[in-house]
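FAQ
Q: What does a multi-component entry look like?
A: The components come first, one per line:
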Amino acid sequence: MEVLRAMRRKAGTYVVLGPFVIVLAFPFYWALTTAFKKDRDLYNAQSNPYVYNDGSGHAHWDFWNYMTFHHVSFLFKHTEYPTWLENTVIVGVAVVAITLVLALPAGYALARLSGRWGQSAGVGIFVVYLVPPTLLFLPLSRLVAELGLRDSLWSLILVYPSFTVPFATWLLMGFFKTIPQELEDAALVDGCSRLRALRRIVFPVSLPGILTVVIFAFSLCVNEFIYAFTFTSSTGERTLSAGVPNELIRGDVFFWQSLMAAVLIPSIPLALLYNAFLDRFIKGFTGGAFR
Amino acid sequence: MAVAAGGLAERRPRRRHLLEDRRVLAPLLIAPAVVFVVVVVGVPLIWAIYLSLTDATGGSLSGKFVGFQNFTDAWHDQNFRNALENTLIITFASQAIVVVGAAIVSHYLVRDFRGKWLVRLLVILPWAAPVALVTIAWLWIFDSLLSVLSWTLGKMHLLGPVCGAFGIHGCSAANPPPWLGHPKLAMFSIIVVHAWRILPFAVIIFIAGRASIPTEVDDAARIDGASALKKLWYVDLPLQLPIALVAVLFGIVFTAADFAVVWVLTRGGPFNSTQVLTTWSESIGVESTRVGAGAAISLYLFPLLLAVTVLMLFFARRAQVT
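Then the predicted structure of the entire assembly, as tokens:
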């Protein structure tokens, strides 16, 4: 009886989760299938779109004989996609560096050094994270123009920390709170200065947490759309987020295969990283306040 | 211990001594972040409020003070009313789907089962992928001629009923529904995409909330002979409610303030029928270069965000207590 109940429970898990997983992952499956399709297969409305078909619309299971890498290589050879990838990485790395410089000390101080007012400061930073870019992009785009940074990656490097710093400070505060105070106290007793203890003990111990912040802050930069869309306009200064929807979609002509490849290439590595660091993210995100 | 540390520091230079003091060190470490955030968030926010009270146009950072003219003008504009209404509909409809979905998925995803790693990866995919890009995948799913959705519904003989539900007649495989070209269908499509992309985040936070319930509570409920349903209602839900609400409030902010989904899917069309506050503000503030009017439109989001923030802080505090 027990075994039967356990089996039913297991089956229930799959039956309920199945439809959700299908819906959530479907656009990615669809993008993957599309990216390698030949034109005559893709634009044949009669054939089964889920699989690969031959010229006359007959499905084949040996899909590797009916797919093409033509559109993926087109993306890299005949569009600015590689430039956008590069720009995205440049902006991401620069922003993450700025973010760590500002958020590491702040996160630590909020977790450890400050008393009551530190609590409110932490909450304040959390609130700032909730001020959306859509409220700020008009004045910021004017500001960027005044500084002569219009249509330059520097505009994004300057502005992106406005949301990564509050986010990172919040997460780091959560991580530092989970590190036992005794660890530092021991170092302080041994005559270590507080800043030295911070550098030599606290930061190394919280490396997994810091790495989590690096990944999620980087992904926030890749994700950002409205600043990238309004601050940059020339093709060479676009990031992925702004470049793909603005430059690869022209009028009513869609290069669906290349577009889908462009969507998948940044998404899959990010998802794998998210999955790997998810538990740590939850710990930091909820550790800041909800403990 | 503090005495020991202080004693050692006394022999060091005075500057060093000062750095050991919490009251000096804490503000010193926090200040750079706070100053930066005030400059790049606080100043623009105040500036946006100032601009909304002027007749500033493109290319200038200021304009003539016009009071609340921009706000009242917007209020009497049918397009704005429509955008405001759409923002509320899209936000609340998508979050309603998210709450129900996240409650179900998180309930099952906390269990241990074969292939959990893969299931979790697939569930968080929409959250990890850049919004502006994955929305293009949806643009392709909702294509007017080669929509995979239309093809599938057609094979299941469901095209007629689905179209009928939206008041569209004569749908068939040869004449697929215009998912993004019909006002009602386009709104539906936008809601689906928002629900889809927020659901993973909500699931993750729900799971975190579940994990924060001590196992002792579970055991106690079991020993007291609580049925599964009673346990859900009297134990699990009340304990999870605060953190679940935090997830929902985040979802509301992310949806109401989003620009990419509507812009990529419909650009506010057809005929401005799917404009939301963010896209309408961009359209007026950037494309029509009426910066003051655009700022006023985007600031209509502010009361909603403020209310959400206050609620969130309230529930976050509740969560902390439990």
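Q: Is there any commentary attached?
A: Sometimes. For this entry: Strands of chain A lie at 52-53, 59-60.
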